[in-house]
Amino acid sequence: MTKINPKFDVEKLDEPSPYTKLYNDRSSILTCKDKVRTSLYIIFKEILSKDYDIVIVGGGPIGSVMATAFARDGRKVLVVERSWDKPDRIVGELMQPGGIEALENLGLGDVFNGISAVPTSGYYIGFKQDSVYVPYNVNPDTGKRIKGVSFHHGNFLSTVRSACKAEPNVTCLEAEVSELIKNEDENKVLGVRIIPKRGFKDQEAYHAEDDTVKLDKDQTGFSVYAPLTVVADGIYSKFRTENLPSRKPVLKSHFVGFVIEHNQENPLPCPRNGHVFLNGFTPILMYQMSDTETRVLVDVPGTKLPNQSNGSLRKYIEAAGSSLPDGIREAYQENLDKSKRLRVMTNSYFPPKKTRIMGAVFVGDSYNMRHPLTGGGMTVGYWDCVYLIRNLSKAKIPDLSDSEAISEALEEVYTLRRPRALVINTLSVALYSLFSADSEPYRNLRDACFQYFTLGGDAIAGPSGLLSGTITNPLVLAYHFFSVALYAMFLEVCKSTSVISMFPHFLKAVYTLLVAAYIFVPLIINEILS
């Protein structure tokens, strides 16, 4: 097997992808859409004629890449996905440099070519009437600044799926996994039960028609067995409770999204960069999906959205945009008026825990979620893929039915993933807590965070590396987080105008530090215990 590791190259983004010819090709996808009884029999014969090493539940950004990497390692893989059609989603559209590095390690550094992707160089942060620029750091090996990339989610997913379809060791099935098959003791997954359904549970994100194929009364689908089942069924995973029955994702907020179209002048203050606007009462994120389109994501804190049918949600989004800087504010309002339907996605936190059931591995959002404010989700997911592929490689574990070897390998995976995942997960939820709350200590911490960035030097380079997923040392995260907290204390004490007035300001400063610890410490403990 020849190992191919193409690198991400900004200069080649406009070139055709090597997987372009399979972009809209469904000929390699087994489907149950027509003539259910006949199709089921044909698919049943086709699938049972192969001896699969791995069954992957979900052909999304993580599942497709896992399948490709395992197949290139010589494993026979079955991927079961509800719909292989191109989705239309409002998140999963920005890849940090750390995520790009992971894809390069998986031999997929060229999946961004030919999809109208836009390179990103850092973050523009607008705060009240000011702004600060946080560039990505310089790669010491090349002397050049590292890059991220933003894109249409559907274009990116179609490309990674094309890479998956190109592998002869991969079988792509359009159907639904209805259950994980276990042994009598219920402590080991043996395979999956498959029924012929299509469509998406995630209707708000994908706008896909529910074209489920119904079974006759005497039909119950079929079972596929494999030594290893990889669960990668995403944010709304129905199988994560198989591993952790008592734990559920904690809903933090919702993103409401629409698109700004700019065929001529780009209205963003700093084009080809991620944008975080903290000018008003809620965070607003923007990034380009192409040279002529910019995604807008407005955060709505809490578990309940304003009513969309009576116009309350639209009024909220209009009010949120009123505090944006000149230029982008007008483009925001104009394109909001053109948007007939506002798109909504949930933002949840789900800390990782080791997989307790043998014969299965959970990856991606089915295993671990964080707030998407920092755009780090796919970075965590793809590095999980890297660690799994390396430790479950055919060279290390020729036979995946070796449960003891699998358990030892997974322990190594959990050890390897913990620092990077801890940094990205904690940073995302901690920053969101800072930016969304409105009490005085949180406002003080927000002010200090922005002022800290303006100091430059390591006060920019450190947070930039953490945001980009390239600095993975938890001590660096703790250092910068509490540096901000101490700076907030300093700024609070500086408000005193006399020795007498210093005491109440000092008490406020101490309380601010306690609030910072209240935000940070539980998150760190959750991640360390994962």
UniProtKB/TrEMBL annotation:
Membrane topology, from the record: Multi-pass membrane protein
Chain ranges of the Pyridine nucleotide-disulphide oxidoreductase N-terminal domain: 54-83
Gene Ontology CC entries for this record: endoplasmic reticulum membrane
Annotated transmembrane regions: 476-494, 506-525
Pfam families, per the entry: Pyr_redox (PF00070), SE (PF08491)
Keyword terms: Endoplasmic reticulum, FAD, Flavoprotein, Membrane, Oxidoreductase, Transmembrane, Transmembrane helix
Cofactor dependence: FAD
Chief site of localization: endoplasmic reticulum
Record's catalysed reaction(s): squalene + reduced [NADPH--hemoprotein reductase] + O2 = (S)-2,3-epoxysqualene + oxidized [NADPH--hemoprotein reductase] + H2O + H(+)
Gene Ontology MF annotations: flavin adenine dinucleotide binding; squalene monooxygenase activity
GO BP terms in the entry: ergosterol biosynthetic process
Residue span, Squalene epoxidase domain: 226-498
Subcellular location: Endoplasmic reticulum membrane; Microsome membrane
Known role: Catalyzes the stereospecific oxidation of squalene to (S)-2,3-epoxysqualene, and is considered to be a rate-limiting enzyme in steroid biosynthesis.
Listed name of the protein: Squalene monooxygenase
